[in-house]
Amino acid sequence: MCGIVAAVTKRNIINFLLQSIKKLEYRGYDSSGLAVINKNSDIVRIRCVGKVNVLSKKVKKKKLFGNIGFAHTRWATHGKISKENTHPHISSNIVVVHNGIIENSSKLRILLEKKGYTFNSDTDTEVIAHLLHLEQSKKGLSLLKTVQKSILQLNGNYSMVVMDAKNASKLIAVRSGSPLVIGLGIKENFIASDQIALLSSTKRFIYLEEGDIAIVKAKKVNIFNKDGVIIERDEIKSNVKYKSVSKGKYKHYMEKEIYEQPLSIQKTLNNRIKEDKTIHFSELSPKEENLFLKAEHIQIVACGTSYHAALVSKYWFESLADIPCDVEIASEFSSRKLAIRKNSFFITLSQSGETADTLEALRISKKLGYLGNLTICNMKGSSLVKESDCCLSTEAGIEIGVASTKSFTAQLTVLLMLITKIMHLKRKNIMIAKKIVKSLHYLPSKIKKIFKKNTLIEKVANNLYRKKNILFLGRGSQYPIALEGALKVKEISYIHAEAYPSGELKHGPLALIDKNMPVIIIAPNDSLIEKTKKSIQEISAREGKIYVLSDKEVNLENNINFIKIPYIEEIIAPILYIVPLQLFSYYIALKKGKNIDQPRNLAKSVTVE
Ligand code: F6R
């Protein structure tokens, strides 16, 4: 979603702004802009539809100078993708960039129009700019007071940065539902939606809390909490390496992140498996662990890829820990009247920890009487982590590719460890628990073996990249893996891909099968293989093009293409089988020449509902 970087310094900030906003491209956007206040106190603004490279070219031609300003990448919500709607937005001396949605902007717009303001865009951001100007001109308020007064009139989840050409020594940053971080430099300070944007300039950060307003000057930062009281927020030293946010030897972040999985799973396991092969989460207190003993039901809520990880864990919770588990897409959970189960425990899953739908579901759950809540999250300082009772971190490291890969396998690893922990707490299936720990230990090396198949997987992708449709089938805990495989293909290749439970084929989708329909079947040689074979035969009889992923060749018909996957215990197999599908989707998009890391219309962190 929208990205913000801002700086107040003594040097010319143009290059800094362009380089830093480029680091936020991964969030997804469709237009970009920049504004600085120059030596004559003029606002200089440049905007364009399209990529930051286009903006850079435009800016460089103008030879701009400014030591206070900001840049923005816009992911359209209010109003079409156009230069007029691109940020920053201006109202006389006031300049604004913002992320999120102002829900009552239409009403405010009418009010402001009546006061004589003319709008040049369809955005809610221009509403903010005019509102700030109106408040400031009414009583000649300071910029801080103007912002404090104006935001009382705004509904919605957002963050914003404001500057004033009449007082170009400070920026005002507001966090109200959408994250902002302040980067502390030497005689210069910065603001961004994400620390990644600032890592080349500083490692020292202050994360704003909900409702905080910060005055950011070159030599000083003052923060006021939601009650307007000046407050100290902790400064953290980031351990994220600037190098870790580069592509290194890989063509794309997605490719790099797929190949990082053995390491990210290892990091997720590290220090959590004790010598006696039991699981220990330092993040959970004994009291929190006991809640899992008390829990008679688990409710998990998530979106997209995280939702698919949750779906896999339903099979695990029920078959291993004997706890009924329901999984729901966050936006659906928040859209209906809920009847909650007795002694139910609430879990959210998220890579970013900022997904608005998941946050909303968590907030709703708190009013419903769950035993407690937990988030499994990849971003430690995120809103979801802050608002949850407790958190288990996935140690996938920063994920830049819009299509989630390594965070998915890390989520599955944490979920399986959590369930194994519960098995130990309940003294249930102890032998199986030991086996799981052993298989988790071997998982990274099994994934590395899949990487050796990349030429074969690329060949399959090259055969299928022109197809208009692809069907994915899986059974049991491999069904969510089929869903995830289809999602990966859809989002980066724009090919229509659908997933079905293998057994459901004969209830409708079989009608789609003919010699042009490729069907990818996840078919490990496990307790379900005989049933899966029936589905393979049904497709084969109708001349569907079959691609089987299995640890054992299925010699049924000769129109079957086989991709051999290393053997792994049935329980843990979903974590392994997604890897060839991630590679497959990557190679299809590569062959099609798509923008793999920034697919059209998508954002990495979906901060609007
Ligand atoms: C798919 C993808 C999205 C996210 C979804 C939830 O590759 O990345 O479907 O999984 O937007 O995001 P998080 O996990 O950050 O809550």
UniProtKB/TrEMBL annotation:
<feature type="domain" description="SIS">
    <location>
        <begin position="460"/>
        <end position="599"/>
    </location>
</feature>
<feature type="domain" description="SIS">
    <location>
        <begin position="288"/>
        <end position="428"/>
    </location>
</feature>
<keyword id="KW-0812">Transmembrane</keyword>
<keyword id="KW-0963">Cytoplasm</keyword>
<dbReference type="InterPro" id="IPR035466">
    <property type="entry name" value="GlmS/AgaS_SIS"/>
</dbReference>
<feature type="active site" description="For Fru-6P isomerization activity">
    <location>
        <position position="604"/>
    </location>
</feature>
<keyword id="KW-0315">Glutamine amidotransferase</keyword>
<dbReference type="InterPro" id="IPR046348">
    <property type="entry name" value="SIS_dom_sf"/>
</dbReference>
<feature type="domain" description="Glutamine amidotransferase type-2">
    <location>
        <begin position="2"/>
        <end position="219"/>
    </location>
</feature>
<dbReference type="GO" id="GO:0006002">
    <property type="term" value="P:fructose 6-phosphate metabolic process"/>
</dbReference>
<dbReference type="InterPro" id="IPR035490">
    <property type="entry name" value="GlmS/FrlB_SIS"/>
</dbReference>
<protein>
    <recommendedName>
        <fullName>Glutamine--fructose-6-phosphate aminotransferase [isomerizing]</fullName>
        <ecNumber>2.6.1.16</ecNumber>
    </recommendedName>
</protein>
<dbReference type="InterPro" id="IPR017932">
    <property type="entry name" value="GATase_2_dom"/>
</dbReference>
<dbReference type="InterPro" id="IPR005855">
    <property type="entry name" value="GFAT"/>
</dbReference>
<dbReference type="Pfam" id="PF13522">
    <property type="entry name" value="GATase_6"/>
</dbReference>
<dbReference type="GO" id="GO:0005829">
    <property type="term" value="C:cytosol"/>
</dbReference>
<dbReference type="GO" id="GO:0006487">
    <property type="term" value="P:protein N-linked glycosylation"/>
</dbReference>
<dbReference type="InterPro" id="IPR029055">
    <property type="entry name" value="Ntn_hydrolases_N"/>
</dbReference>
<dbReference type="GO" id="GO:0005975">
    <property type="term" value="P:carbohydrate metabolic process"/>
</dbReference>
<dbReference type="InterPro" id="IPR001347">
    <property type="entry name" value="SIS_dom"/>
</dbReference>
<dbReference type="InterPro" id="IPR047084">
    <property type="entry name" value="GFAT_N"/>
</dbReference>
<keyword id="KW-0472">Membrane</keyword>
<feature type="transmembrane region" description="Helical">
    <location>
        <begin position="571"/>
        <end position="590"/>
    </location>
</feature>
<feature type="active site" description="Nucleophile; for GATase activity">
    <location>
        <position position="2"/>
    </location>
</feature>
<keyword id="KW-1133">Transmembrane helix</keyword>
<keyword id="KW-0808">Transferase</keyword>
<dbReference type="Pfam" id="PF01380">
    <property type="entry name" value="SIS"/>
</dbReference>
<keyword id="KW-0677">Repeat</keyword>
<dbReference type="GO" id="GO:0004360">
    <property type="term" value="F:glutamine-fructose-6-phosphate transaminase (isomerizing) activity"/>
</dbReference>
<keyword id="KW-0032">Aminotransferase</keyword>
<comment type="subunit">
    <text>Homodimer.</text>
</comment>
<comment type="function">
    <text>Catalyzes the first step in hexosamine metabolism, converting fructose-6P into glucosamine-6P using glutamine as a nitrogen source.</text>
</comment>
<dbReference type="GO" id="GO:0006047">
    <property type="term" value="P:UDP-N-acetylglucosamine metabolic process"/>
</dbReference>
<dbReference type="GO" id="GO:0097367">
    <property type="term" value="F:carbohydrate derivative binding"/>
</dbReference>
